Amino acid sequence: MANIRHVLGISGGKDSAALAIYMKDKYPNLDIEYYTSDTGKELDETYQLIENLKIYLGKPIQILKGAEGSHLDPFDHFLQSYGGYLPSSMSRWCTKKLKLEPFEKYVGDDLVVSYVGIRGDEDREGYISRRSNIQSIFPYRQNIWSEDVISKFLSFDLEKAVALTDIVDLGKNKADFIDVLAKEVTPRYNQQSKLTDLFDKGVKATNYLIFEFLKTTSYPLAKESDFPLLDNEDVIVRDDVFKILEESGVGVPSYYKKVDFEIGGKKGQYSRSRSGCYFCFFQQKIEWVWLYEQHPDLFQKALEYEKEGYNWNQKESLSELTKPERIKQIKVEYIKRQERSTSVKSQYLLDILDDSESEGCAACFI
């Protein structure tokens, strides 16, 4: 292996935690560095998960913090520097200051392969660094490569792409691979369609073709003579993640566990669907209610951050959200949504939707 660092960020959520376990068990020869970014505003269950993982991994987990040396915790330090301006989906300074900048300082100019826990049942790309020394890999998916790598590979000069088929042993499927590589990407036959056709011809063979292509680029893996994930054909979905956590003994953070509630004679269940700061503005309304009822002390702290013109939610303040009638309305609508999903036999889809951005914003688990 070349002088490349392999790193895996642990957000405190289920997906990245399970990925750390998965990588240790399946690829024990990869010398992976584990890290987590501490905002100072995590739930206690997040810190407990980190401790449990340290024991299982048998390795330290580097704690990254923005604003080192400040007398304030990272979030409060930068909140003060931004004049009390709360982060939001339109101004995610928390992502930049608490996640991205500490991570990029941590890796510096080293060549880095970063393993990201986006599941095989999620349709999103996640964080991809713009820095050329950092390459993202997605072990849970059939397609382990980032979108930028795929785009460059599929637009690679055809003659050079065909030449790669002489390097990789494609067996009797060589002609089929060449036919797919020769197909032009169009609005009707898009990049994803072409990639799917290649994977249908052989997942491992496609991975080896892409790996040979990488050797013509400046990506970190271009420096490697081999890469063990080329033989990976696993697709890890939500249920697999929970199974990995339970069977390892690390356990699932308790904030994922459903809590029963009743409103207007109807029963429902709620929980937190994400890790990250307890006041994350990406939370659903029902999750704010969960925080209010299950962690009133933390909800009160979140409430204290709000002031005139600065709310966690654009349409209402936390004071408005927790009025009895508003809580009732949120719970009723949440139950109706569950019932609608169940009535069309899409409870699994509901779980996926409720789990969207499951570890906060995309950069919260780099």
Walkthrough of the structure:
The chain has helices at residues 14-26, 44-57, 74-81, 93-107, 147-154, 158-164, 174-182, 191-201, 203-214, 238-248, 285-294, 296-305, 318-321, 324-343, 347-354, and strands spanning 5-9, 32-37, 61-64, 112-115, 134-137, 259-263, 266-270. By secondary structure, the chain is of the alpha/beta class. The protein has three domains: 5-145 and 232-248, Rossmann fold; 146-231, no CATH class; 254-364, no CATH class. Helix 2 links the parallel strand 2 and strand 3. Helix 11 (285-294) packs across helix 12. The two termini are 23 Å apart.
> What name does the CATH topology of the largest domain carry?
Rossmann fold
Number of strands: 7
Total helical elements: 15
Helix/strand-derived category reads: alpha/beta
The best one-word shape is globular
How many structurally independent domains? 3
How far apart the termini lie comes to 23 Å
CATH architecture classification name of the largest domain = 3-Layer(aba) Sandwich
Mind telling me the CATH class of the largest domain?
A: Alpha Beta
* Low-confidence parts: 345-360, 362-366
Regarding quaternary structure, how should these chains be classified? single chain
Helix content: 40-55%
